[in-house]
Amino acid sequence: xxxxDFAPSRRRLLKGAAATWLLSLSxxxxxxxxALVAVRIWPATSYTRMTLESQSVLQYRHFMLRDxxxxxVDIQGxxxxxxxxxxxxxxxxxxxxxxGVRAGQFDGHTARLVVELKQPVEPRFLTLxxxxxxxxxxxMDLYPKAGSRGAVQDDPLLALLEDYNQGDLARNLPPESxxxxxxxxGRDRPIVIMLDPGHGGEDPGAIGKRRTREKDIVLKIxxxxxxxxxxxxxxxxxxxxxxxxxxxxQVRVAKARKLRADxxxxxxxxxFTDRSARGASVFALSTKGATSAAARFLAQxxxxxxxxxxxxxxxxxxxDHTLFDLMQTATITxxxxxxxxxxxxxxxxxxxxxxxxxxxxxxVLKAPDIPSILVExxxxxxxxxxxRLATSRYQRQxxxxxxxxxKGYFAAGGVLAHR
Length: 419
Hints:
This protein is an alpha/beta fold. The chain has helices spanning about 10-20, 80-85, 155-165, 215-230, 250-260, 295-305, 305-310, 325-345, 385-390, 390-410; strands at about 35-40, 50-55, 60-65, 70-75, 100-105, 110-115, 120-130, 135-145, 190-195, 235-240, 265-270, 280-285, 360, 370-380.
C-alpha cells in the first residue's frame, strides 16, 4: 500500500493544508542539488531539537497535518541518501514529542520528512551558517503547544524559553532592585543555589583526545553537586539543565533570576590547542575587559555557545548592554569573594592553572543581582586531566570542593553587598 505522505498529489496537499496551514519558505536562492551530511535529534522535557546538516543552505517549507498529527518538511533540490533514509532510527522511545520520523522522495526535486508527533507542537525553524566544525544547518525545535503542556514543578524553563522565543525574556522576571528572596540566606530561609552545567544538546563544548565531551562531564559533576546540596538542611538547589539539551545563555541567567538564586555556579571543562595546558580555574565577570589573555580567549569561546547551539534574537538586555549600575559592581565584588573561596578548595584536590580568580566578559555571569562564578574544572584537552575528569570519584571530589567553597563564602559573611 503506498504511503500517501509521499505521494505528490496537489489535491491531498491542499486539503491537509486547509486544516492547519503553516507554510513557510526559507530565503535561500535558487534550488541546487544538496545532500545531507548528518541528522541529529535531541529529545528533552522542554523541547526536542532536530538538526539537518548539509554542505549548502537548505531551502524548505513546512506544514502540519492531522489525523494522525504530523509535521511535514519538504526540502527542495534534495535527493534521498542513506543518512536521510536512516532518520527513523534516531528517534528515542522516551522522546516526549516525536513518535517517529520517515523520509521519502516526494517528487524529482523534493525530499520530504514526515515527523509523527505524540502531542501538538509549536515548531520553530532556524537556518544556521557554518560554525565550529558544523556546516549549514536547518534546526527544527518542537515546543509543546500552549494548553497541552504538563506542569513542571519548580522549573520555569519552558515559560522562559517561550518568552525568549517571543523576544521578551525579561517580561516575567523580578526587578533587579528586588534582589534574592527576603530574609537572610541560611538563617531565615534556605540558600538558593543555581548550578549551570555548560553547553548541552547540539553544543558539545570541548572534546578531548579520547572523545570525552565537556557537556557530559560537567552535567555529571553538577548532578554530584546537586545531590550533596540536597543533603544540606539550609540549602535549596536548581539546575539550568538536567538533560542533554541546549539552553541559550540568556535563558540560563534568566532562570537563576526567576528562581531568585543567591549564587550562580557555571561548571565547565577547559580546552586549549596546547595539550600540556592543565589545571582548574575560577572566573568572575569583568565589565572593564579581561584580566588576562587566557581569560579573554576563554570568554570568547564560552560566549560562542549560542552560535554553535543556534538561537534567535531575543532582545534581552543582559548580554548586550555595556552600562552596569552600582548593583552590578557590588555583585562582581561578591562574585570575586565567592570565587576565591571555591578556588582555595579546588587547590586541595587539583592543580590550579592560576592562583587567583580571573575575570572576563562571560555572558552567562551577567545576572546583575546574583554573585556568579564560572568554574573550569580542568583541561579536557589535557590527556591526563581528561582521564581524571571522566571518573566518578574525581567528579565527586570536584563537587565536594565547590560545596565547601559555597559554605566558606557564607561562613565568611558573604552576602549580597546591596542587601
